[in-house]
Amino acid sequence: MTGVPHAEARAIATLLGDATRLTILWALLDGKARTASELAWAANASAQNTSMHLRKLLNAGLLHVIEQGRHRYFTLASPRVAMAVESFAALGAMSTEAREVPSSTPDTMRFARTCYDHLAGALAIDLLGGLTRQGLLAETEREFSLTPAGERWCVQQGIDAGALRRRRRAFAPKCLDWSERKPHMAGSLGAALLEHLLAHKYVERTREHRVLRLTPAGAQALRPLL
After folding, report:
1. Are 221 and 202 in contact (CB under 8 A)?
2. What are 130-171's pLDDT values in tens digits?
3. How far is CA 74 from CA 37, 67, 91, 152, 220, in A?
4. Under the GO molecular function aspect, what terms does this record hold (predicted)?
């Protein structure tokens, strides 16, 4: 497990000696956050058994918990953990078959919707990915930030980042997307970005509650980022 300290590697190897724990971690390799009940389904384990394994993985520092409202979502604690899990699974010592967690979210709402006053859904996640790949956004564990190139991009789009920072709210905090289970961008910048997309008719509201539609103009304009 190159890059993982020996003590951490030994702890991981000991914990992954259990097939259920390995399957739980394997189910999180796609980067999505999942609830305990979803991980129990993925590992084909009881809720009580899964809870016990999650406590062990949390205590060992292999998992991170995101608390949002009444819900607790689990993710891998770091890329190093993901690398260790993949390395261990590559040994072929045991099966890593995880059942796919079913989704009941309608496709239209999963693709694009509002989350309070900012963009959510797969479109939001893809857009953030494009902004990050092009060096316009950077991120930490809790928030996004504009790079110098991102500041210039905002000026080009008519978004006054300086004025947004002076508002009495967080600038660009992460908000866990409940359908995609990855963070999208909230705060004053997230709200301004949605306003920009609506004003330019890149997305439009539909009759479905909170659901947005990507317009042909939006698909064309946002193609470099998606």
Report:
1. yes
2. 999 999 999 988 899 999 999 999 999 999 999 999 998 899
3. 11, 9, 25, 36, 36
4. cadmium ion sensor activity; DNA binding; DNA-binding transcription factor activity; lead ion binding
Q: Indicate the pLDDT class of residue 93, thresholds 50, 70 and 90.
A: very low
123: helix, strand or coil: helix
User: Residue 117: which residues within 8 A CB-CB, separation 6 or more?
Assistant: 190, 191, 194
CA angle, corner 73, sides to 65 and 46, nearest 5?
Answer: 105
Rounded CA-CA distance 50/208 in Å is: 37
CB 80 within 8 A of CB 3: yes
Specify the amino acid at residue 216: P
- Token pair, residue 33, equals 């956050």
Report d(CA 9, CA 3) in Å as an integer.
Answer: 9
Average pLDDT, the chain: 86
Domains annotated for the chain, with CATH where assigned, are 6-90 (1.10.10.10), 107-225 (no CATH)
Buried-exposed string 74-94: b where 16+ CB fall within 10 A, e elsewhere: bbbbeebbbebbebbbeeeee
Count of Cβ atoms closer than 10 Å to residue 71 Cβ: 12
Contacts 24+ apart (CB under 8 A), 144-148: 144/172, 144/173, 144/174, 144/185, 144/189, 145/171, 145/172, 146/172, 146/189
Name the 3-class secondary structure at 7: helix
Phi-psi region of 201 (alpha: psi -120 to 50; beta: other; left: phi over 0): left
